[in-house]
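Worked example 3 (structure in, sequence out).
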């Protein structure tokens, strides 16, 4: 019987391991403002050497809710408070009429109030009531403040940039026969084929008929992490909304206890050490997040002014800031910025190349312009559009790429664009 022999063979290998403060910094960087508030509170509860300072918010105003406390809460008790918060951030205040409209919304986010009666109740002109309703309908989620299902869908299409598309025309011109399921009348009214109607109906099926889903108790309101401010010289500056976060300090009582001579000071020493390390990681998190967002904003000034997004990859930010690409991903994921009256996801400031040195937004604009000014009697096929784009950009553009972006624009194929009617009026 053979006996097994044990041998010891030494070998070397190189491993990369995170220190604890590296892991904590990575975790803090991946948290948005809402999750960071809860995490800071949990750390303060675990470590008595950390104290949360209660200071008056510079954004607090009279006769309104304490929005600072509202931001500090991860989950709001009512979606109406979130709408007031969005209006407050966008305008710096909420009028009594806007506050009444928000309070009168039903549980699904629809506005059932008689606008004509509101003019008499608040003694304002009808245009003022319509303006307040438009302000409400510009908030998140898309479709909030709609007066009926048709308006709810139109608002969502408008937010997606599909104004004038087939789905828009279907709602705007043939909603009544569509609601009764009378496909024949819809086809006769719009002079469409069944395939074109099915495509437009498929777009509508992806819309949400209820802006507010009451059954979803796990929904978390969007809380912006930073604000984009335009300077007098035309440049843009990113400012973190740190007023929404609890302010932490090291407990003065535990600091004084270190100077008192007694034998057992281990607890105070360890607690203060971990507290200072957490404050350092929190400060590094804010600086890294600010650098990443400022880099993206500097390269997307045209996009912020209403133009197309420029090419700005996560790899470009990592190379410029000398950070790892995963750090950039953690900094961007789940973060939101306030710009004017809009709340932008931070990831929207980054855009990859679609074809050559052309971004996806620029390619869509070129494609939409070609289709808009084409001969309606003989519209271009996707292959013809691909050839024209390839000639303009001096880069090979495939037919599949043109088809993908054409569908995203809500535009029909060549057969569906023959003698296409003019776009409907704005909502």
């Amino acid at each position: 019987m053979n006996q097994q022999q044990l041998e010891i063979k030494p070998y070397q290998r190189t491993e990369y391991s995170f220190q604890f403060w590296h892991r904590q910094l990575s975790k803090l960087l991946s948290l948005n403002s809402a999750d960071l508030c809860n995490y800071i509170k949990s750390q303060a509860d675990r470590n008595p050497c950390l104290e949360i300072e209660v200071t008056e918010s510079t954004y607090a105003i009279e006769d309104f809710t304490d929005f600072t406390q509202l931001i500090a809460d991860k989950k709001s008790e009512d979606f109406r408070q979130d709408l007031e918060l969005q209006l407050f951030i966008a305008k710096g205040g909420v009028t009594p009429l806007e506050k009444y409209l928000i309070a009168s919304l039903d549980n699904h986010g629809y506005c059932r109030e008689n606008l004509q009666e509101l003019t008499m109740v608040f003694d304002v002109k009808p245009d003022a009531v319509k303006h307040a309703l438009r302000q409400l309908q510009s908030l998140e989620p898309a479709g909030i403040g709609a007066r009926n299902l048709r308006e709810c869908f139109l608002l969502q299409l408008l937010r997606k940039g599909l104004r004038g598309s087939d789905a828009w025309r279907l709602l705007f011109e043939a909603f009544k026969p569509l609601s009764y399921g009378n496909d024949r009348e819809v086809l006769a009214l719009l002079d469409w084929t069944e395939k074109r109607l099915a495509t437009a109906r498929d777009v509508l099926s992806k819309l949400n008929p209820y802006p507010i889903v009451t059954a979803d108790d796990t929904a978390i309101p969007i809380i912006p992490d930073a604000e984009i401010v335009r300077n007098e010289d035309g440049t843009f500056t990113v400012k973190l909304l740190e007023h929404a976060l609890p302010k932490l300090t090291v407990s003065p009582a535990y600091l004084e206890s270190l100077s008192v001579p007694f034998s057992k000071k281990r607890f105070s020493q360890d607690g203060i050490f971990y507290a200072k390390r957490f404050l350092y990681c929190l400060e590094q998190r804010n600086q890294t997040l600010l650098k990443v967002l400022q880099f993206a904003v500097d390269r997307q000034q045209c996009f912020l002014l209403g133009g197309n997004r420029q090419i700005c990859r996560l790899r470009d930010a990592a190379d410029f800031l000398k950070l790892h690409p995963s750090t950039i991903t953690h900094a961007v994921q789940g973060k939101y910025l306030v710009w004017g009256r809009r709340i932008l996801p931070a990831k929207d400031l980054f855009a990859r190349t679609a074809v050559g040195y052309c971004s996806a937004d620029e390619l869509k604009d070129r494609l939409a312009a070609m289709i808009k000014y084409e001969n309606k009697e003989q519209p271009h096929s996707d292959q013809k559009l691909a050839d024209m784009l390839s000639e303009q950009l001096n880069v090979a553009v495939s037919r599949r790429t043109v088809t993908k972006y054409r569908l995203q624009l809500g535009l029909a194929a060549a057969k569906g664009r023959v003698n296409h009617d003019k776009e409907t009026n704005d909502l």
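Notes: Residues 144 and 331 are 30 Å apart (CA to CA). The first helix runs from residue 20 to 30.
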